[in-house]
From TrEMBL:
Domain EamA: 22-133, 141-266
Matching Pfam families: EamA
Entry's transmembrane regions: 30-53, 65-83, 89-110, 117-137, 143-163, 170-189, 195-217, 229-248, 254-273
UniProt keyword annotations, A-Z: Membrane, Transmembrane, Transmembrane helix
GO cellular component terms, A-Z: membrane
Superkingdom assignment: Bacteria
Annotated organism of origin: Pseudosulfitobacter pseudonitzschiae
Protein name: Membrane protein
Keyword Transmembrane: yes
Length: 275
């Protein structure tokens, strides 16, 4: 378990690192969020292609595979829109509405059981997201993009469970990246950034951080039970706060800390119930 936990900590740091690179592209270099999202999927597809197992392309005959890839494309585009104007810690806090939506959809669509206590924890986590976003009470408008991104992520998690066993983790990762890259290609080409060394480097870092983080997450789930790893997903919030301070000099305000506490507390308690 110690090895899996270490892998999880690295993975949960790489994902917000990739998004920090995306934020630098959009906020400091004026790059379109559509380019960031499009290039991320294109490069991720190219990076993972040499490791794709035999029979992967047969998965593309399944319409649910296409739906899952399109959901991911919309989610990543939304989070890049949010990162253009909002602090990364706030964006990740609002984004964590995703697991709450996934729990709810799991009960309504996949008929997964939800106890009364689980419902209370979902409500507490949702309250934490509202405290961070503060709709109509001073929260940044860009955080609504983060909520949309988290909502798409919740749909993506549900679709992933819906497709459990359809293919290997690498095969499913390749199809999701490839479909998203194809869907966003016209938008990326329409928003080509200036060809500078800084933009090229940050574009590669954005794609590599996200890809490596997600691949390590898949690997960790192969060597340890998901119920033991689930609480470690919330390390993304800690990493996002640390990166936001180190790179952008931004720390959450008091209300955001309260929202973070509610989100993490509800998530950890819910993961404990699954264990």
């Amino acid at each position: 378990m110690e090895r899996a936990a270490l892998i999880m900590f690295v993975a949960m740091s790489l994902i917000p690192l990739g998004d920090s690179a995306g934020k630098l592209l959009t906020s400091a270099h004026g790059v379109s969020p559509l380019w960031v999202a499009s290039s991320r999927f294109f490069l991720a597809t190219a990076m993972i292609a040499p490791f794709v197992p035999h029979g992967t392309f047969a998965l593309l005959r399944n319409w649910r595979i296409w739906l899952r890839g399109l959901i991911l494309a919309m989610g990543i585009t939304c989070i890049q829109m949010a990162l253009r104007t909002e602090d990364i810690a706030n964006v990740f806090a609002a984004f964590f509405i995703g697991p709450l939506i996934s729990f709810t959809l799991g009960a309504l669509v996949l008929r997964e059981p939800i106890t009364g206590l689980r419902a209370v924890l979902i409500a507490c986590g949702f309250a934490g997201v509202l405290v961070v976003v503060r709709p109509g009470f001073g929260g940044g408008a860009g955080l609504l993009w983060a909520v949309a991104a988290g909502s798409f992520y919740g749909l993506f998690l549900t679709a992933t469970r819906w497709l459990a066993g359809a293919g290997s983790p690498v095969a499913l990762a390749f199809t999701q990246f490839g479909i998203a890259a194809l869907a966003l290609l016209p938008f990326g080409l329409a928003n080509l950034p200036p060809a500078t060394t800084a933009v090229a480097g940050l574009t590669v870092l954005s794609a590599a951080g996200s890809l490596l983080g997600n691949l390590l997450l898949l690997y960790a789930n192969r060597i340890a039970p998901a119920t033991q790893l689930a609480p470690l997903v919330y390390f993304q919030l800690i990493a996002a706060v640390a990166l936001g301070w180190a790179i952008f000099g931004a720390l959450p305000d008091a209300l955001t800390w309260l929202g973070l506490a509610l989100i993490v507390g509800a998530g950890l308690a819910s993961a404990r119930l699954r264990g």
